[in-house]
Amino acid sequence: MQLARLLRRLDKPPRLRRGTSRSHRPEGDGAASTSRSHSKRPEKLSENVDISGLACDSRAVRKGSLFVAIDGTKVKGSDFIAEAIKKGASCVVSANGRTALAKTRVPVIHFSDTRYALAVLADEFFGHPSGKLKVIGVTGTNGKTTITYLIRSILQEAHFSCGIIGTVGYSFEEKIIPTQNTTPGPLGLQMFLKQMVRAGCAYCVMEVSSHGLDQQRTRAIDFKAALFTNLTHDHLDYHLNLENYFSAKAKLFRELNKDAFSIINADSPYAGRLTAVGRGKLITYGIDSACDIRARNLALDLAGSEFILHTKKRKTKIKTRLIGRHNISNVLAAIAFGLSQKIELARIVRAVENFNGVKGRLERVRAQERNVFIDYAHTPDALMNVLAALKALSGGNLTVVFGCGGERDAFKRPLMGELAQKYADKVIITSDNPRSEEPQKIADEITLRMRGGNYRVILERKEAIACALSASKAGDTILIAGKGHEDYQILKDRKIEFDDAIVTGQLLRQMGL
After folding, report:
1. What mean pLDDT comes out for the span 229-251?
2. CA nearest 336: which of 288, 295, 278?
3. Are 387 and 422 contained in the same domain?
4. Which CATH number belongs to the domain containing residue 41 in this structure?
5. Whose CA is closest to 450, among 420, 408, 482, 410?
6. Per-residue DSSP letters for 421-478?
7. Burial class for 259, CB neighbours closer than 10 Å (0-12, 13-18, 19+)
8. What percentage of residues in the chain have a pLDDT greater than 70?
9. Which of 39, 154, 241, 377 can bridge 383 by disulfide, Cβ–Cβ 3.0-4.6 Å?
10. What residues make up the domain containing 145?
11. Which CATH number is 475's domain given?
12. pLDDT for 444-472, tens place per residue?
């Protein structure tokens, strides 16, 4: 692709010269410096310079790449410009107007917001794929994964092909690509969208994380609908406070076009504020609040849930295999989206009733006379929702095994300890993904406010699960929380295989349970 075509997206910059740093500003995105540096022999740069690829990691640079220098939390992208040029970069975009690049023979574009630049350049390079299929963004602290898979089931029931981008993985046409981030960076994101377009997908449903929004990974995507689930305590190590966290989530709704759909959980305390700042056609859903799509007459048990769906036009009985009040809210969100696309309600109901759930989301593990579940709950609100649901529906004792991830929001650790002790009869604190932190330190922070004798700490996760199972009786319920679909543990610099469902199944068979 020609450099000139790419650069037109960055506020139509003028023709550049080799070894010249020019300043440009994204519309409405802050000021750019006016500093420039000139080489001794500036040569006129042809607008026909060909760009073979984009990179924001110097290790990924190939001959002909355009390198965008992004500053991370630990390193500065500008420190790797020389390496990128040495590896064959044909052009550099940098926020640092005083880089020592006067003697380079590649164009250097000084742009104040390189994250914005990367997003729009990636969109242009991959041919604006979000304009060729309907991209749906689902954001919120909890519920995103279940909702995206519910929506895919509804779309498939209506004979639409659909890709998914989210926590469990990126998938389309039976292809599953393992994930590192809930929302990938702009380059990966636009590449996946283009692959979905080529595969003939009509829709892409994606989880949109607060990190992804704050870092502008989704900035150039043309969302046809955005869904908001809830906002509770999480990621405060990154956002510092709930107000910043909310502001990041709200970006998805502020940037919608007027023809898109804005689907909001009316039961959330943030619903009113989000409605006020958002754009698009508003649809609300909920259980406790007056709204467009509402559930009433809830009936819950460990085999599933039932409720009466109220819309403006009709009432319909809905059955789902999903467990708990929070999952009814997830179902309502998916139904609201289906109706926004004018999909027949009969098809929506059929898809919901046939939906078997998502791996690691209240996933039942086969056991004799016991209810054993694996769940991804790793925030205070998610853990509370799952424990409250199981407590209300369990006949025997409820035991929870959980830990908290290292190098992540430490503020939530004592909150989760308190909630676990409040809702469960027995609590076993163990390791999750401690990363570089000491597991005992994390456990100490979880138990900081716990009182009484109904908890214990067993840091080795397999041993903790075994203890919970061996101490259980017929009719008891055991929840193993925190890791859900993950099939690994991160211990300092090691990543080992560890799948809660597989380990739990093996232990149950060994114990004859």
Report:
1. 86
2. 295
3. yes
4. 3.40.1390.10
5. 420
6. HHH-SEEEE--S--BTS-HHHHHHHHTTT--SSSEEE--SHHHHHHHHHHT--TT-EE
7. exposed
8. 91
9. 377
10. 129-354
11. 3.90.190.20
12. 999 999 998 899 999 999 999 999 999 99
Tokens of 282: 């508003």
Task: State how far the Cα of 216 lies from the Cα of 186, in Å rounded to an integer.
Answer: 8
The pLDDT tens digits of the residues spanning 24-44 come to: 444 334 333 323 333 332 334
In order of 195, 298, 331, 334, 498, the CA distances from 146 in angstroms are: 23, 19, 9, 9, 22
Question: Is the distance from CB of 455 to CB of 447 less than 8 angstroms?
Answer: yes
Quick one: DSSP state of residue 79?
G
> 45 phi and psi, to 5 degrees?
-95, 125
Backbone dihedral angles phi then psi of residue 438, each to the nearest 5 degrees: -75, 125
The DSSP secondary structure of 347-411, one letter per residue, reads HHHHHHHH----TTSSEEE--SSSEEEEE---SHHHHHHHHHHHHHH-SS-EEEEE---TTS-TT
Contact 64, 50 (CB under 8 A): yes
pLDDT classification of 101: cutoffs 50, 70, 90? low
What's the pLDDT at 28? 38
| CA–CA gap between residue 178 and residue 171 (Å, rounded) | 9
Would you say how long the chain is, in residues? 513
Q: How many CA within 13 A on the CB side of residue 30?
A: 10
Q: Which of 119, 336, 95 is nearest to 217 (CA)?
A: 119
- Name which residue leads in pLDDT, 209 or 19: 209
Residue 277 identity (one-letter amino acid): V
Specify whether 327 is located in the same domain as 199. yes
Cα–Cα distance for residue pair 77/68, rounded to 1 Å: 8
pLDDT in tens, 119-140: 999 999 999 999 999 999 999 9
* Residues 17 and 33 placed together within one structural domain of the fold: yes
Are 120 and 81 within 8 A, CB to CB? no
AA letter at 393? L
Q: Kindly state whether residues 205 and 312 are assigned to the same domain.
A: yes
User: Would you say the C-alpha torsion 74, 78, 84, 86 has a positive or negative sign?
Assistant: negative
Neighbour order of strands in the sheet with 398-402: 363-365, 371-375, 477-481, 398-402, 426-429, 455-457
